[in-house]
Amino acid sequence: MVDQVTQHQGGPPPGAGGSRGPAALARVLSRRQFVAGAGGLVALGLAGLAGYEWPHGGPGRSSPGTEPDYAELSGVSGFRSRPDLLPPVVRVRHLGRGPSGASPRFIFLAPRRVGLGGPGQPGLMVVDREGRLIWFKPTTGANPFDLAVQAYRGRPVLTWWQGQVTAAGYGLGTGEMASQSYQPLGQVQAGDGLRADLHELNFTSAGTALITAYEETTADLSKVGGPRHAKVLAGHAQEIDIATGKLLWDWDSLGHVGVEESYEEPPRGNRASYDYFHINSVSEAPDGNVLISAKNTWAVYKVDRSSGRVIWRMNGKRSDFTMGPGANFYWQHDSRLHGPGVMTVFDDGSFPPEERQSRALVLRVDTRAMKVGLQRAYLHPAGFLAANQGSVQLLADGRALVGWGSQPYFSEFAEDGTLVLDGELPIGYRSYRAFASDWVGHPVEPPSVAVRPDPGGGTVLYASWNGATEVDSWTALAGEDEGSLQPVGSQEWSGFETAIALNSTGPRFAVVALDSRGRQLGRSQAVGTTS
Fold first, then answer.
1. Which end of the chain lies in a sparser environment, N or C, as judged by fewer CB atoms within 10 Å?
2. Is the domain covering 448-528 a CATH 2.60.40.10 domain?
3. pTM for this structure?
4. What are the residues whose beta carbons fall under 8 Å from the beta carbon of 284, sequence distance 6 or more?
């Protein structure tokens, strides 16, 4: 059991610091949707979760009836039916009083290697609430970021960013979009000679995308003790027409926010560009204006969409708001407005450290009195600091999903702040953000099957279908040749790869995927036994 402590009127525990478009796809829970719960700061006790121990056969292990592979024991899943896929294993633990039902069905991640890295492949990943793999797309030669479900032309699509990450911590790449059959639908490129940055790819109801981009330019740093003609990184927020690629709107941080607002120390000499702003999220405000987060000024800016003028600053050196106890944030990511008076922020609190641990914040915003109060803060029981990245998604029934950025975890909290689900990637991987959503995938390619002799007698079939979300069970077929295949066994879906033990020796085998009503969804090609 996880201890829960609720704090009122006093901010965080000692040591803790301080939308999609309005007509976006209606779904049970949106990455921007929120129903307010009771106020208060929620701090989770450290008991029971400081060290994770995963018993054999836990989430992410081999399907029943199969022996664990060495690759899996080292943090990577290996599949006989899809040997080309080596995704990192996702562990999920359920704790305390979980939500009723299993909604949303899936969690969307983009695990990538960091540091010395871990075994396996980086890529785009969908898992269910047990951590079982549903879909995996390796991204060889490119870094994956920000996998999410969004709406385009009234239909759900998958979106993500991929490209190269610079030493300065921004991206040079493209926004990507795929259909429910996982087929490419197009790309989003930055305008005005810039490259799309990794930090944001946010679709609007008008068929446009809000993105970030970085520009290497020069500026006067004399106000912060630097040279008058210094190399500086300007942050751009852009709006791109998705269908045509036309640049509709461009906002340049240097034209509206001075370098003196930064908490980032200028580099010594003039060898490196000064990243004074570090733009990391862009979204539509409920009134149609734009909300921009800048990590290195510790501030969120509401910007007039017509003129580019800063309407107000929240937090930072020139805040237009009085920040209440526990409401301040530092080196933040993923700032979003959720209707009148509610904002979420992932408060990294580091790097360098300004707090003892990172927090996912829900803030009360009063634009008449110009005051910001802390409604709730979610803390991970491990008490770690995320040096960068992170996300906060508010769900329709008051739950919250938090991606812990540079720490390889994602967590779901109940409306009262109880931790109910905790997920973990292997050491050496991280996911920039984490999102929960419902999704229906219909892969174009047929199911895959591999056949092995069963040491106990008979045959074992290994069935999988990368990206298929509606498979409830598998039927095994066997016969002398493809024209004589007949049903010889069945097995409920038990994970990405399901093992089916058979008495038949074939010699030809195939599998049929069925939904919960027994309808055929797809059929594999016929294959023979491989020793």
1. C
2. yes
3. 0.86
4. 19, 20, 21, 22, 202, 204, 210, 290, 291
Contact 436, 421 (CB under 8 A): no
Separation between Cα atoms, residue 274 and residue 434, nearest integer Å: 29
CB–CB of 442/468 below 8 Å?
Answer: yes
Q: What pLDDT score was predicted for residue 253?
A: 98
**Could you read off the pLDDT of 451-470 as tens digits, one per residue?**
999 988 899 999 999 999 99
User: 463: closest CA among 455, 454, 474, 453?
Assistant: 474
The strand pairing partners of 473, in sequence order, are 492, 514
The one-letter code for the residue type at 234 is A
Say if residue 33's pLDDT is above 50. no
481 C-beta neighbours (distance < 10 Å), count: 10
- Please give the Cα distance from 243 to 181 (Å, whole number): 20
Phi, psi of 222 (to 5 degrees): -65, -30
- Long-range pairs for 301-307: beta carbons < 8 A, 24 or more residues apart: 301/256, 301/257, 303/237, 303/251, 303/256, 305/249
Q: Which of 393, 339, 343 is nearest to 31 (CA)?
A: 393
DSSP string, 190-257: -STT--EEEEEEEE-TTSEEEEEEEEEEEE--GGGTS-SSEEEEEEEEEEEETTT--EEEEEEGGGTS
Distance, CA of 360 to CA of 345 (rounded, Å): 6
The residue among 508, 482, 511 whose CA lies nearest residue 499 is 511
Structure letter (DSSP) for residue 72: H
The answer to whether residue 323 scores a pLDDT higher than 70 is yes
Q: Does 427 or 343 have the greater pLDDT score?
A: 343
Contacts of 193 (CB under 8 A, 6+ apart): none
User: What are the extents of the domains in the chain?
Assistant: 448-528
**Backbone φ, ψ for residue 297 (5° rounding):** -105, 0
Secondary structure of 125-152 in the HEC alphabet? EEEECCCCEEEEEECCCCEEEEEEEEEE
Span 37-50, average pLDDT? 33
Element (H, E) at 422: strand 419-424
Whether 235 and 182 have beta carbons less than 8 Å apart is answered as no
Backbone angles phi, psi at 375, to 5 degrees: -90, -40
What count of residues does the chain have?
A: 531
Using one digit for the tens of pLDDT, what is the confidence trace for 167-213? 999 999 999 999 999 999 999 999 999 999 999 999 999 999 999 99
- Calpha distance 277→226 (Å, rounded): 16
Q: What is the DSSP string of 241-264?
A: ETTT--EEEEEEGGGTS-GGG--S
Phi-psi region of 245 (alpha: psi -120 to 50; beta: other; left: phi over 0): left
**pLDDT at residue number 469:** 98
| Confidence check: pLDDT of 21 > 50 | no
Place 96 in a pLDDT band, splitting at 50, 70 and 90: low
Mean pLDDT score across all residues of the chain: 86
